[in-house]
Batch of 4 targets.
Target 1
Amino acid sequence: MTTLVWFRRDLRLADNPALAAALKIGGPIVPVFIFAPEEAGAWSPGGASRWWLHHSLSRLDRDLHRVGSRLILRSGSDSLTELLRLRAECGASHILWNRRYEPASIARDRHIKAELQAAGVETQSFNGSLLHEPWTVKTKSGGPFQVFTPFWRHCTSLADPEAPAAAPTHIEGPALWPASRPLHEWQLLPRLNWTRGLQAAWTPGSTAALLLLRRFLDDSLDDYQNIRDRPDLPGTSRLSPHLHFGEIGPREIWHETRRFSLAKGRHTTWRQSHFLTELGWREFAYHLLYHFPNTPEQPLRENYAAFPWKPDAVHLNAWQRGVTGYPLVDAGMRQLWQTGWMHNRVRMIAASFLVKDLLQPWTDGAHWFWDTLVDADLASNTLGWQWVAGCGADAAPYFRIFNPTTQATRFDPQGTYIREWIPELAGMPGDWIHQPWTAPPQVLSAAGVRLGASYPRPVVDHAAARAQALAALALLKRVEHP
């Protein structure tokens, strides 16, 4: 009696409910990953995600070999065809997997489960990526939440999620293994190697994820509330790409944080920690995506579909390349391009600049992040962009427009983050680095900065752009409430 375990966004052995269920059934287990990006529709993996996936699959296969197993790789435009083919090759009686919650994945999985069951295959799916299933968390009226605070208050009032299962020490394999595709054939790595910055910044895999979590708990959790918004300080966990690919699960983060906090004597307050609240935002993002599946492309607040965007290829390109003339925005966009990641506070500032200073459609920003982020996650990406644009659930008020200069002064006070990612401004003194266009000529000359040459002048005047955005947003409000 052989069981197929279909790995997807759960590339780990510990805290893997589908794998644990297969071990409980007993008998040979065949782990399989099917690469079928066409099934994701418009949201197939971007370049940075493909790089991470390549290395994560390689490490998962290595982990499986350590316990006597291996990862079978298959590809095609149809996962069902590959599963049926594998079932015939292995004589599998069961096919198990952990659930995904993107709209295209839900539709695909429902179809696959129905077809497999009709073919006589025992199937079962599990929750391997969330603390709570989206359909189990409801308002008092029985509907979905659309405001974060009551959503997370409700979640933290529930019982703790189940403790994660340890990784198995041995997995029985079949007498004859089915054929597997070589990983390099998928060409997940780019032909032109632009990934050196990613390689320097990241180590994919579940081992690295757990080490990163424990190091964060030891070094940064106690001060997280105070430094989490500072891009110039190493105050965040950087677990988001590991979470996205399922190299670590939220249950493991929850229980590791619980153990650490209880050891510190925080018996009553640990559930309200700012760190776990960030995990709550991820839960909220999936809650919204499940209940409002059109939001990756359409605003949740339908009236925003009429917003008077001003698409401009020159402005969009300047933002993408990090040459807007606003140092904190440019530093973030360059960090993104070089490392596949951007500090969350800077993400909000850069996103606000695109949609409110430049009046570019929020979907253009969402698609750029999707291609360049190693943690490109459809739920979190959608929530973040709609929050900034003011068109989603729990959105920022329409009049909230981040001032990139004052934000830089507040959260990168010495200009350390700016100097790291914009070397042409490294010589600027702290009094002028956040707005070099206001610096006296002698200051610019001493720093080796030539505005318009070595570093651009601002592409827009923030005060004028803010007034224009407020006028457009106010008009939209009048249309909404005539």
Note: Residues 2-129 form a domain with the Rossmann fold fold (CATH 3.40.50.620).
Target 2
Amino acid sequence: MTSYPHFGFEITHRAPTSRARIGRLKTPHGTIDTPNFIFCGTKATVKSVLTKDVKEAGTDIILANTYHLMLQPGADIVERMGGLHKFMNWDGPMLTDSGGYQIFSLGYGSVSEEVKGRSKRFDGKALLNISEEGAAFRSYIDGQKVYLTPEKVMEIQRKLGPDLVVQLDECTPFHAERDYTARAMAMSRRWGERCLTEFMSHNDGKQAVYGTVSGGVYEDLRIESAQSNAERDYFAVAIADCLGETKEHMYEVVAFTMPHVHPDRPVHLLGIGGIGDILTQVRQGIDTFDCVTPTRIARHGWALKKGAEKERINLRNAMYRENADPIDDDCECHTCQNYSTAYLHHMFKAKEFLGMQLVTIHNIHTMNRLMREVRAAILNDTLDTLHKEWCPDAKCG
């Protein structure tokens, strides 16, 4: 059995009318309450804000991306600089994802939202090959050939030094046929076993590993993957792979997967973080979420707001040109306490970077407020009421 002496997960409350639960996730850098949201610091930065801002906005945990950091600045440099926590001045819990989604993006031509800013110095075919050994691709920075194997992924994450690490897997597109998805799931399972072996050979108690549950949109494959995952010595579960083409597909996939995951391990839903999605998926027992959306849309003038149509408002709209109100009268974030929407509108029209920073702070604070209210609603069995408060619009989820 793999030992995780400095980690733990305690479920402190279960909702009587759903699978929703409240827990305490313990790591060497602190304990967080769940359900919780993990903010994306993909390249060792939550874009446009200081880690001080992130913490002051109520954040408990962040993540960084193995794929991007292995290419730049490189895991060896991060290790020599004292690991990610010291490198980016963050002293709380941290997770790194495996790079599996980036393999998917490179392979199927859907430009990943994570790599929109990639260099134009290399425009050739990025993914070269996916095999039992791993994935071969060319760096988007300089075109050099790079190999990503299960063992290499665990080595890179060990050098980066987060608390929580994720096995390498292959993410399939929603339109992949069942036979292809089954082969990819089986290979991801074998990759996971290799990741565990590599992890255990260097386990010093400082990290814990998530095993992924894959199988695309196919119920029997998801069940098989979840059961296999539960039999292995992972600390936690990451629901990965394609979740379908629509929200309805995603909700269905999670619903038929969750009854089969290990009941006592923390469960993370990779890459999902819409307000309506969170309010829906906590009912299935999801403990943590991550998504780039809250901070990305902030940089384009979109502010999250409780009760807003489609979860957000567009500060670039002319209706805010002379509006003296804050984004949200009930919000206690630094932005809402000190700046009007007229000022924020001006910042974006003038293309001032400060606007991006201020709205990012607001969106981070709002997501953390959401998760606090979610935990309280689970405890009081009032999730339905909370869902209507945050998402009165049917399009919200």
Note: The CA atoms of residues 271 and 291 lie 5 Å apart.
Target 3
Amino acid sequence: MKALGSSKICAVIAATDAKAMHKQLSKALRLTRMAELRLDWLLDDAQIKIFLRHLAVTRPRATLIATCRRKRAGGKYGGTIAGQLAHLAEAIQAGCEWYDLEIETVRERSQELLDALLRPGRRLTSAHFFQRPPVDLTAVAAELAGGRSDAIKIAARCNSLTESRKLLEFAETRQNIVAVPMGDVALPTRFLALRRKNQFAYAPVENSTAPGQVSLDEMKQIYRADEFGARTGVYGVIGNPIAHSLSPGMQNAGFFARRMNAVCLPFLTRDLRDFVDSVEPLGIKGFSVTLPHKEGILRFLHRCDPLAERIGAVNTVVVQSGGRLHGYNTDYVGVLQTLERRIRLRGSRVLIMGAGGAARAVAYALAQAGTAVFVSARRMRRAKRLALAVGGEAVERAALRHTAFDVIVNATPVGMHPSVGSSPLKAGELNCKLVFDIIYRPQSTKLLEIAARRGIQTVSGVEMFVAQGAAQWKIWTGHRAPVSAMRRAVLRMLSNERNSRAPGRIAGGRP
């Protein structure tokens, strides 16, 4: 929307005191030239006045939108409408070209009064729906546009990709309308909206002001959202939960290293059908699959690689013409590349903890390499089925203290962020030379710490994660993956995460 500025990213400035607001604004304007000033987040009227007085002096060269949303409209301002309008008028005088005025206030004051108080500011009239999208978008848009608005905004929590698509498609057919899908499921569609001309996305500098927002740093550094366009290739990673995944950061580092106009986005997927039905409309070219969908995705595939079909789990999908889905499994590659560097697989005794999709990939990889495979799991029936499928042997948990192996592989999610204090095995059950945990977040799991204290060699899941991700990248693009760049990105993200949780630091944001 040219009327609201040329940037695709609108930084959200929200803090409780004027000093913090100015600090956020200074940081934001180093990354984008557009910002929303959430005056309603400031502690009281006095802090608002202090902030605006300073703004009037500095007058940054940027497109600024002043917002002072009242509590009844989902904001934090507890004062009167008169106070709200006075602050917006002051913001316009201080250099804000635009102001966001919610429909609740528009309904309660005459257009003549609003025009008199807020001229020459340009009005973005907004409506927010925090439970679900409105049934009649046309009626909402008509009401918003009827108040002498220069532009309108409809922000709605979307509980499915289907709802998100409808909101974006509605906005695409009209001029001067900002569509904002809210919520964790809708998060990737905030990015996809940027492929459309004149749309932008809100990105908080520090404090999220709506569900499903992505921080300004992530928008710029991980997703390069300001470079999005109609030709940007879209890939994704699906799972539930998905916030822990470092796949987008890793794959995007690969795209950046190869100078490709493409992006990988996280899709929180509770309903596989909803995602699959959205693949073609959203222009998704390929996606990776993580827990709990590695097995469930099989029923939606049009073709499956024979090895992945034998494993019974898929972690990589390519979208062919007509939306046809072709499935592969690259976990297999990751397992072999990781372990072959450390041990001679043929003839080795390897215990796999777990019998789910990831465990199946590990088991088939090791069996093909000539390893003696043993399987133990909480559900022994599944362990026995997997062991039988690969010519291995199921082992009861009680027998582990008295059985020796060359390698133990954890293929369960136990110990994965955020449950980092858990381990699938106890110290006395680690009778082996090497422990390999396929979990990569955290890099050093509780299981690996226990093994290291016993003097056992350990291998982090980071190596397998990068190897399987590079194989995915090649399948998607047809080009050799920039493995070093992808590994550096993963290690950097893990390091940043550790630092954010160090004593005296406050962790924030999303994974």
Note: Residues 503-511 have pLDDT under 50 and may be disordered.
Target 4
Amino acid sequence: MKVSGRAAADRLKAALIAGRQAAADEAMAIHDLVVAYDIEIDDDLIDELLVTSVRGGGEGTPQVHEFVHLELCGLLGVSARHARSRIFEVLNLVYRHPILWAAVQGLGLEMHRAGMAATKCSDLSRADADLVGRQWFHQQEGLAWKAAADLVDRLVIEADPALAKKKQDQVAACREVVLWGHREGVIDVTARMDALDALYLDATVDQLADILRTDEANAAHTKQVLRAKALGILATPALALGLQQQALNPATTQPAVQHPLLEDPSQGPEPEDIHDAGPSVLRRPVLDPETGRVNRDPHQCIGHACGRITVPPAKLQPKSKVYIHVDDQDLSRLGGAAFIEKVGWISSLTLKNLLGGKNVTIQPVIDLNTIPSELQYRPSARMREAIQLVFPTEAFPYSHTPSRGLELDHTVAYRKSCRDPQTGVGLMGPLHHKVHHAKTVAAWHAQQRIPVEIVWRSPLGFQYTVTKDRTYARE
């Protein structure tokens, strides 16, 4: 039976309404769980380990149990950080934005949209947050998501300009660059920078992309692809400087510069050349015909692209430790896969292209079966490496936090009186300090039956099995 387009559209609209109802019900359930959550702990704990309550959102929201977000992350199947954000969002709506909360429950406003507005108002006083929420609610109808978010930003600044300036200063103090979102051999880069620095970086990337476009080898690439390649070139500043000099000051003595991805890696340096500009190709200097010396006429180089590169750019590249895991069976075939920590799975052929032109040092493989357990409390460097190979991410339900840098916790509490080795593979797991605390006070219970698996039981009795790469929920 053929379905008409209008009938399918009506079904879609009904599904969207049902989705709003489900999101509103979920938010109400989160609120009820957070408010009612309480657990029993050992009364004999020292004061430093006592469980405390924390404010669940902005001014006017109630205190909540410090471990409730860990319970919620298992129920929602999300990370602990995401669960904490959901609690923050819901409590802000309920206690600081009654008009928005009523609209969500009445299906007149999407939960995700209302939560965005409430989160942006979280630093305002309760009264100012309510006022901004009311203003925004009456003006946001018909606006696209970005426009609605921009409207909140403006109203928040107008409500308390001094607070907005203080918050902007705080955000500036938390500038960062983050790698995330790997897919098919490429990765996203997000940077939190000063606004003008970001605009100048964007202009520099655009400039280098235009320079790359002049090379016939890049003729098939789009502008956005060339911008991405340009940002990669900035990782070696000498290469970027050489390209700028070559394009902006053709008469300069700076020799041509080539990027490793555009060169023939088999081409080697000539012994008599000086270390000039190329990453793997060393260029001869240009000599003044009268003096026989290198021509360094400053008039041939004007502006920020001045400067002669006297060290091979390849030597200027920083050292970076990258962990790549390849199955021994994949080494014998071209179609194998490789896993790059903090990135993800890529084709071995793609890996070969990514490593082309780079100096690579291969570390020996750690055979987990040959590493004996240790007597001391803190694991040796080799033991730490082995445990991180067993659990590349935090050994807690649905966590995706990389294990490197986390605490290594003994699954069974370490006993000084015990003479048996208690530190080793199968006896420990990487945990965030908050999870470690929850386990220490017996709020969460962990059991490690085999080295690559930890079974967790939450205070409400839910059970989760955490393995190297996934979580299995059990009732």
Note: The chain is about 40% helix and 15% strand.
